[in-house]
Amino acid sequence: MKAVINNEYGAPDALYVSEIDKPVVNEEELLIKVHYTTVTTVDTTFRKGDSFFARLFTGVFKPKKNVLGGEFSGVVEHAGSSVTNFRKGDKVWGGAPDGFGAYAEYIKVNRREAVSLIPDGVSFDQAAALYGALTALPFLRDEGKIEKGMQVLINGASGSIGSFAVQLAKFYNCEVTALCSPRNFELVKSLGADYAFDYSSPGVSGQLKKYDIIFDAVGKTSFNKTKRYLKKNGRYLTTVITPAILLQKLYTRFIGSKKAIIAFTGLRSAKEKLRDMDFVNKLISIGKLKPLIDREYGINQIRAAHGYVDKGHKRGNVLIKVN
């Protein structure tokens, strides 16, 4: 089968398309023909290997898992004899095992992994773009303790995680302020944001107030820079692991009312993810949630797709059409 290979850390040129063996599945596994996958900032971080924390997952000196891709949509090609929850021909979306392997024509997953049927009326490209909601949801609900009437600030509101965070915060009946570039103001307001401000403007600090939750969906700010905008008992949430946030999470747990929080949502159990996938499917079905798609590339354009995401200006999701 065709797959994107990443044998060394570096620029997008480190990626190349090659033929590798098609996965062989056992009685507990599904073989899924991948229709779409995505290019996320996690994928580009793993490709670059420029983070110590990333290399803990991918290999200190070179990638140990050389097929990237953490999310997909596709069709069940084969279901093992012990698989009762899926059958051949089912349209599915989900996460790749351990966050790797979706940059390929086929992927195998255990029947108990985070894989769900695609809701009626949702296309394969839309389904591939749903997985960011599985980061935004536990951050806001479990770590942010979001409640009706809260005031929520979302940095990176036009990205794949941030765009879901805006919609979820509105679902919980909160007031939402979005930080993004001016070209995305109308976009985030169409998703439900009550206010939108330019994150790069020197005067943005004078436009902000106090918030119950500050969710940095792109990891571009810090607890120290934003804590003055937190209310008493407010929570700063970030998706990016740094030594600073790990230390701040530890000491704010015991000192002060304002909390700094980093959560490892990708490491949650499959049971937890499946529960949230059911919830996301319901929100999609009733029109309360929609994935945001920026652009689509073919698998042979993988370098261009990674190069685009590296620029840091994507709106929602960047898709790779595999089959």
Descriptive report:
The protein is of the alpha/beta class and 323 residues long. It has helices at 41-48, 52-58, 124-128, 133-143, 160-171, 185-190, 223-226, 243-252, 270-285, 302-310; strands at residues 2-6, 15-19, 29-39, 71-79, 91-95, 106-110, 115-117, 151-155, 175-180, 195-198, 211-216, 230-238, 259-262, 293-298, 317-321. Strands 3, 4, 5, 6, 7, 14 and 15 form a seven-stranded mixed β-sheet that branches. A six-stranded parallel β-sheet has the order 10-9-8-11-12-13. A two-stranded antiparallel ribbon has the order 1-2. Strand 8 (151-155), helix 5 (160-171) and strand 9 form a beta-alpha-beta unit.
Secondary structure layout plus pairing:
Blueprint: E1 2-6, E2 15-19, E3 29-39, H1 41-48, H2 52-58, E4 71-79, E5 91-95, E6 106-110, E7 115-117, H3 124-128, H4 133-143, E8 151-155, H5 160-171, E9 175-180, H6 185-190, E10 195-198, E11 211-216, H7 223-226, E12 230-238, H8 243-252, E13 259-262, H9 270-285, E14 293-298, H10 302-310, E15 317-321
Parallel strand pairs: 8-9, 8-11, 9-10, 11-12, 12-13, 14-15
Antiparallel strand pairs: 1-2, 3-4, 3-6, 3-15, 4-5, 5-7
Distinct helical segment count? 10
Structural class: alpha/beta
Percent helix range: 25-40%
The mean pLDDT is 96
Distance between the termini: 11 Å
Low-confidence stretches: none
Which descriptors would you attach to this protein?
7-stranded mixed β-sheet, alpha/beta, about 325 residues, globular
Summarize this entry quickly.
The protein has helices at 41-48, 52-58, 124-128, 133-143, 160-171, 185-190, 223-226, 243-252, 270-285, 302-310; strands at residues 2-6, 15-19, 29-39, 71-79, 91-95, 106-110, 115-117, 151-155, 175-180, 195-198, 211-216, 230-238, 259-262, 293-298, 317-321. By secondary structure, it is α/β, with parallel strands linked by helices. The protein starts with a strand and ends with a strand.
